[in-house]
Amino acid sequence: MRILKIAVCSLIAISEGNMMNFIQDRLNNVSHVGKDKRADDYLIVDNGISGKAKRTSSPVFIQNHWSEVVTFPRPDLSTLTADNTAAVNCPNMMPNLVNWSNSSIWPYGSIPNADGTSIALPNNLNILITNSSLYQGVYGYITIPSNTTLVFDDASITLNTMGVTVYGKLLIGSETCRYRSNININLYGNITAQPFPPDPFVKGIYATGGTLEMHAQVYAPTWTRLATTALPGTTTIYIQDAVNWIPNQEIMITTTVLKDSLESHQNEVRTILSLQLASQYGSSVTAITLNSPLQFLHYAGTEYQAEVVLLSRNIVVQGNMTNSEITALNNANYTCLGDIGSGSSLRPCGAPTGFGGHIYISDNGIGKLTGIELLHMGQTNVMGRYPFHVHMLGNYGVHSYLKYSSIRSSFFRCVSIHGTNNFTLSNNVGYDITGHCYYLEDGVEEYNTLEYNFAGFIHFLGNITDPTMFYTQTLNTVYYDPINLIVPSDVSASGFYITNPHNIFVGNAASGGWSGFAFPALYSAAGLSHATIINPSTRPTLIFDGNSAHSTGYWWQNAGAFYLGGFYQEFDPATGLPSYNPGRMVSNGFNTCISNPNSTTCISDAWMRFTNTKAFLANRGIMHWGNRQELIRYEAHDCGKAANMFGQVWVNQMLAICRTQNVLPLYNSCPTGKTQWWNCASRDLSYWNGYTGFEWYDVGQTHILTNTTFRNCTTNWNGCIPQTGMNGIQYCMGTAWNFLTHSDQFVPEQMQATGNINYQLCDPTKLWRFGQTAHISVSGRMQNWKDTDGTASMQASPQKIGSAWANKWWLLDPNECYQTSTEMNMWVCKSTTSSGQNITSGSLILEVSRLDQATVGNTQCGNGNFISCPTIAYATHILRNDNLTASGLAVEVNSKITGPIDPRLGGGWYIRYLKGAPTNITISNIQLEPNVTHILALPYPAGTQFNIVYNAASWCRPWTRLIVCQTNFTQTFSYQDFISMGSSYGAVYFFDTNINVLYLSVVQQLDNQLGTNGAFDRYQDLSTKRFTRDGITLPIVTWSSFIQIQATCPGLPGVLYCPLTDNFDIVRTAVPSSTYSMSPANSTTTGSQIAIGTSASESIHSDPSRITSLALACFVALSVIII
Question: Which Pfam family, just one, is annotated for this protein (predicted)?
Fold first, then answer.
């Protein structure tokens, strides 16, 4: 592609109105590129030619599964023709075969009738079934002894049976002899034939210690993607691959809208009439003529394309439909539930249920299937009865596989990998599936390979999440029900259900379901493996590369196309039964690490690593309620949020297109004739209110984002349903970033850093937003951001970004800072001074009353409920001489303070409490950048005495004198000595008797020790604890070491606060001055310190609404395809 770089980056001091006109001009100048193209002017995009584009007069055509950032691996089909035509070791040509119809091999010379009578095959024979061997009718249960082989001829054969048990061998083709003929095995049986506990041979093929091999012609690739958008009414579609599919086979074109449910879906099944290469659109593009026109639009733009799935195979194993007892839509328990008045769907219609066939491999049996169609298989809520099930094979799973096969209209799953390792699941498709499709069962399954598989149109069992909980993080726990829900997690059935990530997932795709790829937290093994010592939720991914998911994550706002959350217990403490909670239940989950074999003890940290991942059309592209993840080369398009992630997270090379050119149906499942938004359920409405590229959380996170692009993230987008703000103005939400700002309980430290951020077709006055603006919260005041190169804030140098809700707390040098637009609510300041000094950030908690702190989150300082959160102190910078109350940071009962540390302003913070000077302060949760000495200054009455101690965590054990667990702070008697010793030793304080201020040197220490060799170590190595990616480092929080200050007021022992009688708003550490002092040397003056002057402070606009006149009228480089 030829790329036009439009760069208009300059700092322009213009009026707010002119700035908006300037921005709109920039938007107008580029918006037509790629959006207002003529209908006959499109692109061919080809991954094989490095993204170069060439002009054509036909619609957009995508080749070779091209994607802008993601590289999708594709199966190697170079030997397909040779493998399909090979005829080596064909079982129907093996020696000593005897025909089934040979009466001499049967007892009494009587060939078995197809009358439901069970049959035990003779011993020590190789028996051949030809197209004339079998009677019409249904055979009973067939047993193949361990020394007998049953072989099918490569001929048109139909076997009707109630089940087959394989102790010996059942061979239909071989790995080097794929059969070409149409062969059908129809499995018969009513649900009443299945006893409890269920027998594995009932309506199944049961290889217990035996070998089952079925090898048909391979039609490949088994699924592909549209090359260009397929419009309603068309009978010709174009796909990206050359295929060997044939006429009269059935295919399915996936939905490209958000909702995918029985009562509202746009998946379409059609029959192929003809195929031909469309080489004018690319060497591999194929045109397919369909038997009837499409009803819906199936999108295929440069952002993403609908999958096209081949359903038909020439060897079919199926549950006979006359007695598979479908109970789906006519059963009162499976009705579609709607809200009162509109009938729109609050829950999906009930899943199709039935008693289909199954294939079961156990007891070191071998199952090798290639190119098989499994139709109407699976037995709803019958444990272990799935279309294909490898059961407790352990490492013997290496001998089995399922490849190039189709599972369709299954009543219970696609494939279960149960207690089995090293199994291969490759190039299969699953469509119209009840329950999880590809299912890792107990959490012990590892080193399996799942590659190039597709799962789509997934149906839940039981009642999905209570609709009233759509916006919540926590959901109701679901329990085992022996009749309706034997596996509680099927209430949130997904395409891929991954109880243990330590497997290989390459090139898979999912459409529909609760999520595409679900990673539930299991803290111990489940099911038959429950005695195995393992914590599956801590296991890292082995390989997770090139996977995609879409039209999913719809039924709950926090559900993701890739969902790492939910909590499964084999033995629920309340009931002793299996339970599952699909919501945020991961207090101990996803603490990803490396552990010793047969142990749950972590020996080193590890990361869930996803590479080349794409999500689209989902409430969340990825939702990760975990601890450590790396997301490398990721695309998220048309999502409510591209990514919402927890813990230590690195996102690198992300492309988030907030809204694409795919025109979605506006009211996805609102009833016909009632298209007003108020008639739509919240699930249907939420997606149309707004979106976010990435969400910054409010506490306890470490997030680094690098080399990331946000495109088309504006508040002016097609289909938006405006919300009405508190001022009565309607608006659409749409920003690249979102801050969680609802909480007074959960408050951020320094948690987020970015590098090389790009915005394309984004409004620079609305790049981010505060998620909640009705209440000036503690979390809102502490929000901050380390913009390591200035690109996130559209500046030319590194910036420190902090909340404008905190008065001037985050405003440092007014000449090097500006305030963003009102919607963005942040100060943006250079993070390096003109003299080259670094401005860092710090965070800590100052607890003065344990009783008050215990009320946080209970009766005071709530989590979004806006209960009282009283101010107990104010903080400012040591050398800032502004009015403390008017310009300082209000410190609430939740007394966590996060803020900048500027060496020009004294290198620390001045804090004064409303009730006086506390006699007991605990300083904890310290977070500082490497080798930073942070100064705290607190006013006290003259004559106050201090005892200050640094304590390691309670688990620090000084078994010898080598480990330091506690140290007393050393008092200095001049400010110069305080600064000098603070830098070299660290644990020092100085009480300045000229101004009666306690100066305390705060350095960050390890939790488990304060030093070794009997000495306090100010420079302990915390590097292994910090989080560093791509040259960016975020400091850790030490949660358990703490500093204790005990102050004794003169003549007032035992009081909680020493009285202070001077003017509260005068900052004692600053002397009024008419100049703004920049000299770091001033910070070494004993006693009263030189301060910033008022004149510069007053030069800042006092009206925040006018600060936008200083905003950056800058539009970042736009990568625009030139047509």
Answer: CEMIP_beta-hel
Report residues of the chain scoring pLDDT below 50.
1-43, 46-57, 328-335, 338-343, 668-669, 671-674, 1072-1123
Strand 449-451, strand 424-426: pairing? parallel
Token pair listed for 290 = 């369909």
Q: Give the single-character DSSP code of 905.
A: G
**Predicted pLDDT at 465:** 67
How buried is residue 467: exposed, middle or buried, by Cβ count under 10 Å (0-12/13-18/19+)? middle
566, 540 in Cβ contact below 8 A? no
Handedness of CA 323, 326, 330, 334 (dihedral sign): positive
Compute φ and ψ for 309, nearest 5 degrees: -120, 130
CA distance 501 to 997: 55
What is the value of pTM for the model shown? 0.89
* Residue/partner pairs of 1068-1076 with CB below 8 Å, 24 or more apart: 1068/910, 1068/937, 1068/939, 1068/995, 1068/996, 1068/997, 1069/878, 1069/879, 1069/906, 1069/910, 1069/937, 1069/995, 1069/997, 1070/878, 1070/879, 1070/880, 1070/881, 1070/910, 1071/881, 1072/881, 1073/881, 1076/813
Rg of the chain on CA atoms, in Å: 34
Please give the pLDDT value at position 601. Answer: 86
β-bridge mates for residue 730, sequence order? 724
Is residue 901 within 8 A of residue 907, CB to CB? The reply is yes
Give the pLDDT of residue 726. 53
Best CA proximity match to 597, nearest among 663, 548, 679, 539: 539
Place of tokens 């919402």: 644
91 preceded by cis ω (within 30°)? no
Instruction: Say if CB 917 and CB 768 are below 8 A apart.
Output: no
DSSP 501: -
Token readout for 94 is 């093996």
Note the Cα 516 to chain centre separation in Å: 11
Q: CA dist 456 to 88, 185, 297, 543, 591, Å?
A: 35, 25, 17, 22, 30
The residue whose two tokens read 């409890």 is 196
- DSSP class per residue in 378-402: -BTT-TT--SEEEEEEEGGGGG-EE
